[in-house]
Design a protein that fits this description.
Blueprint: H1 2-27, H2 30-40, E1 46-50, H3 53-67, E2 72-75, H4 77-80, E3 93-97, H5 107-115, E4 120-124, H6 130-133, E5 137-140, H7 156-176, H8 180-186, H9 190-195, E6 211-213, H10 218-228, E7 232-236, E8 242-247, H11 248-253, H12 264-267, E9 269-270, E10 274-275, H13 281-289, E11 297-301, E12 307-312, H14 313-318
Parallel strand pairs: 1-2, 1-3, 3-4, 4-5, 6-7, 10-11
Antiparallel strand pairs: 7-8, 8-9, 11-12
Helix pairs in contact: 1-7, 2-7, 3-7
């Protein structure tokens, strides 16, 4: 019975929070566009502030904006009153969050913004609150109660606030033409950074390329494979185009007493899989893993068929993509 009650409360919580988001969705109007105009044309930074739970959500909103092309940081209202107001300049825009709009800790920030004409956008459910009346624009939150069983703890309101922040960040990304490459520059570390790296970042080039001509014999192929230590060799024609590839697997399949005297064109796999240098490493891994029997190497080819690099599955794994 306890488990059934738990599921019931969980579903009620979800329903109430979804309801708040529906109310938010239906309340969106031209005020959102006006707020976005201000944020997009902010020459400085977007300074997000809020107290308590609003502050916790504000930190996430600031972090999301900063990572998606809108310079932003979080300013704690308490610290602002003790010197950190100096971080706010006339080129900035303040995004102030308070569910009820009467957080007294925000008063010093609001007074400062009014004095120096710093644009202020409020996120609150009460436009007639102190915060609402002292801001240039109000992005109104739903006022249909909390998902909390007691109706007291901020739940629906913080979810709606978080989504409002995501709405602002997403719109600013679209307006500014923010790309995956821009995202990569802001996420050089961790899994995200690895996923967004390109083949050109890890490929072997120059003297590391295991290549031989199409008039060579398997003895030449074995020597090159041993010297380059990538487990394969590419076969190129007189024009320098890649026409085939020989791997360790091919050697095992062709193992005969006279193998070293065989012509490479008779042993090679014709028209091997290749990839572009500007492709994501994740695309390369997907290609190598989904070629039937799977492959561990791919030559990198851009224009035409001339190889400019090669990648090994181990290069991808070392880069953090699997």
């Amino acid at each position: 019975m306890a488990a059934n009650k738990d599921i019931e409360v969980a579903k009620q919580t979800i329903d109430r929070e979804v309801e708040a988001l529906r109310v938010l969705e239906n309340s969106l109007d031209e005020t959102l566009t006006k707020a976005l105009d201000i944020l997009q044309h902010t020459k400085g930074r977007v300074i997000v502030t809020g107290m308590g739970k609003s502050g916790h959500i504000g930190r996430k909103i600031a972090a999301t904006m900063a990572s998606t092309g809108t310079p932003a940081f979080f300013l704690h209202p308490g610290e602002a009153s003790h010197g950190d107001l100096g971080m706010v300049t006339v080129n900035d825009t303040v995004l102030a969050i308070s569910n009820g709009g009467e957080s007294k800790e925000l008063s010093d920030i609001l007074v400062y913004c009014r004095r120096f004409n710093v644009p202020t956008i409020a996120i609150t459910k009460n436009p007639q609150s102190s915060l609402g009346k002292n801001s240039d624009l109000v992005l109104k939150l739903p006022d249909n109660g909390e998902a909390c069983p007691l109706g007291l703890a901020p739940m629906s309101s913080t979810t709606a606030t978080l989504v409002m922040g995501d709405i602002l960040a997403a719109n600013l990304m679209v307006r500014k033409g923010f790309t995956a490459e821009d995202f990569k520059l802001r996420h050089p570390g961790g899994k995200l950074g690895a996923i967004l790296r390109h083949v050109s970042d890890i490929m072997h080039t120059g003297d590391e390329l295991p290549l031989i001509g199409d008039d060579a014999i398997m003895q030449d192929a074995l020597i090159t494979m041993s010297a380059k230590m990538l487990g394969c060799v590419g076969i190129v024609n007189k024009a320098g185009d890649l026409i085939g590839m020989i791997t360790d697997g091919d050697l095992r399949r062709w193992m005969t007493p006279n193998l070293i005297e065989e012509k490479v064109v008779n042993v090679m796999t014709k028209n091997p899989r290749t990839i572009r240098s500007d492709a994501l490493i994740a695309e390369a891994v997907n290609t190598m893993n989904n070629t039937g029997r799977g492959i561990t190497n791919m030559f990198v080819v851009d224009d035409g068929k001339k190889p400019i690099g090669i990648i090994h599955i181990h290069d991808c794994l070392r880069a953090g993509v699997s």
